[in-house]
Structure formats: structure tokens, C-alpha cells
Amino acid sequence: MATRSDILAKAASLRALFEAQGAAVVEPPILQPAETLLDLYGEDIRARAYVTSDAMRGEQMLRPDYTLPVVQMHMAHGAEPARYTYSGEVFRRQEHDPNRANEYIQVGFEVFDRADPAAADAEVFALIAEAMQGLPVRPVTGDIGVLMAAVQGLDTSPARKQALMRHIWRPRRFRALLDRYAGRSPVPAGRKALLAKAEAEISAPMVGLRSQAEIEARVAALREDAKTAPISAQQVDLFEALLEVKETLPNALSPLIAEMGLRFIFAVLFVSTLSFLGLGVQPPQADWGGIVKENKEGINYGIQAALYPAYAIATLCISINLVADWILNRTTSLKGGRG
Questions:
Q1: I need a labelling partner for 44 at 20 to 30 A (CA). Which of 150, 169, 210, 304 fits?
Q2: Rounded distance, CA 183 to CA 179, Å?
Q3: Contact at 8 Å (CB) between 265 and 320?
């Protein structure tokens, strides 16, 4: 097992590698203001961070991560493009796994370049891959923007979306929140008892750093959340299907392409059926299903008027299916094409 001296030496060598690439060394304070971390991560961070207090500065936390203070420093004083590196202790409380360290060394390399984000991502990935050569690890990448867009598309309250966004990088907590918002998991007994009361009753002496107004605001937020309708089972199932996509890029694209093709065809047939029944697109706007309905009475005099729009619907659906099959054959062996 590596000693602390070995770990510090390795951290120094990694930081030197990043410095050689033009990164400036930054050393954020070990004590960080709790307010900013609470605003970003929510109250749940208290269960994972060491919290203390200061008579002048209020609540403080032992640095749980480097990224946030580095981003704050860059926003306050930095200019783009910029590259930063750091190495030092971070602290995380471990309440469930005694084998995980609660103090460890974090080394990082951050690039800020909004002019070409793709090139910045590639630079960071290539440099980290070089630094990890020879170690028993493998690189894993993903696009969290896909999940963020999916969260924003959910039919739920802004507060719930914000909570999901805070925990989008913590899979277990994120899934637990999603289940709770969908009504799949029971409301905690303590919260249920609190919400059952007509109003918040705070009779105990105020000994913490939270004021009565803050506590009452939190209770009001919980009451408002309890009134929010659950996320539909269909949306949760779609989200879970998205979360299960975990493969190399071509293989990950395959189920998405197949799903997109099927859903597009379903949408075309669904809208056309609604228009045929008089429930969809209304005149004077034109729709193939509506045209079939308007011309069905004249089939005895000329079938072409009703047949052509029906033929157009069928042609579009078949064409989309063929295009999806062609893409699948070009990107994966799922349909017998190239691997």
C-alpha cells in the first residue's frame, strides 16, 4: 500500500506535468465558506463535509473539492483562455464505507476557454490520459449535457429540477431523488409528521446557526414540494433508459438511433390518426391524415385523392426506418453491419 510520502511525490510529479503545459499553480484555502457550497450542492453536502463555524466568517467547511474555489477564483480575477493546476488535501466524511479515506490528495488540471470548448475538452482528456499511463485505470467519458437537457425537459417544478441538477453527478442520490419525485419511494416519517402539522412549530431553543426565518422558509419549501404532482411513470422510464446507455460511442448511438426512428414513426402515425378522426390539425392547415378524411367520401369517383396522402404517410415511415437501418449498419454490428 502506498505511503503518504509516495502519494505526495506522485501528486507533485503530476502537478509538474501540468505546469509544463502552461498551467498556473493555485492554492485555494482549506477552509471554504459554507454558504456558497450549500447554495450549489444543497443541504445534503453537510452529510459529506466537515462543517465548523467562525464568529466572524460564519459557517466554514473543510475543502471538499478544488473545482469550485478554482472556478470562483477564475471568475473573480482570471482571463480566458486560462489553465490552472493544483494538488492538496480534500476532506470528505464517510458514514457508510469505513474503507474509504476521509482525507486524500486531489490533483487537477482545469482549462477555461469558451472560444473552443471542444478543443479544451480534448486537451484535458489527452493530458490526463498521458498522466495515467501505466496505472490500472481506464478513461471513461460522457456528455452530462444530455442528462441536463433531459432534466430540464421533465414536467415538474423548477425547484425539483434544480434539486436534480445539483445531484446529477451523484448517481445514487440522483436516482433516489427521481424515485421520490415520481412517488416510487415513501416520504420519510419525520417529514410526513412535519407536513401534517398546520404550521411549523418551533418551540425548542435556537442553538444552531440557522435562524428561525431560514427554518420556516425551508418548511414552506417542503410544503410546496409536497403539493407538486409526481413525475409521470413514462418520463421516469424514459429517463432511466437514458441512464442505462453506457457503452463506447458507436454502440451507445445504436439504441438511441433505433429509439429515435421508432418514436418518429409513432409520432407521424399518431398525428395522422388524430387528424383523420378530426382531433388533430384543423383546417385550413393541411395534414395528410386530414386530407385522407376529406377525400374518403369521393373514393367511388376517384381513389387517387385519398390514396396519395396515405401513400405519402407510408412512404415517410418506411423511409425513416430505412435511414435508421442504414445508420445502424454503418455504425454497429447490431444489424449485421460493421463493428
A1: 150
A2: 6
A3: yes
95 SS3 class? coil
Q: Which amino acid is at 14?
A: L
Report the run of H or E that residue 310 belongs to, with start and end: helix 304-331
Q: What is the pLDDT of residues 200-222, one digit of tens each?
A: 555 666 666 667 777 777 778 88
Task: Give pLDDT, residue 250.
Answer: 59
**Does CATH place domain 4-141 in 3.30.930.10?**
yes
Range from 18-22, 67-71, 106-110 carrying the lowest mean pLDDT: 67-71
Report the C-alpha gap between 9 and 3 in whole angstroms: 10
Digit-coded pLDDT (tens) for 20-35: 999 999 999 999 888 8
d(CA 22, CA 154) in angstroms, rounded, equals: 42
User: Are the CB atoms for 215 and 202 separated by under 8 Å?
Assistant: yes
Strands 82-91 and 24-25 turn out to be parallel
pLDDT in tens, 133-164: 888 887 776 677 778 888 998 999 988 898 88
**Strand-by-strand arrangement of the 82-91 sheet:** 24-25, 82-91, 103-112
Q: How far apart are CA 161 and CA 148, in angstroms?
A: 9
Furthest C-alpha separation in the chain: 92
Dihedral, CA of residue 200, residue 204, residue 208 and residue 209, to nearest 10 = 50
0.90 surpassed by pTM: no
Higher pLDDT, 7 or 334: 7
Neighbours of 206 (CB within 10 A): 10
d(CA 303, CA 296): 8
Percentage with pLDDT > 70 across the chain: 85
Question: Nearest 5 degrees, angle CA 152-CA 35-CA 27?
Answer: 100
For residue 258, the SS3 value is helix
Q: How confident is the model at residue 239 (pLDDT cuts 50, 70, 90)?
A: confident
> What would the grid cell of residue 215 be?
427554518
Give me the residue spans of the domains in the chain. Answer: 4-141, 147-236, 247-331
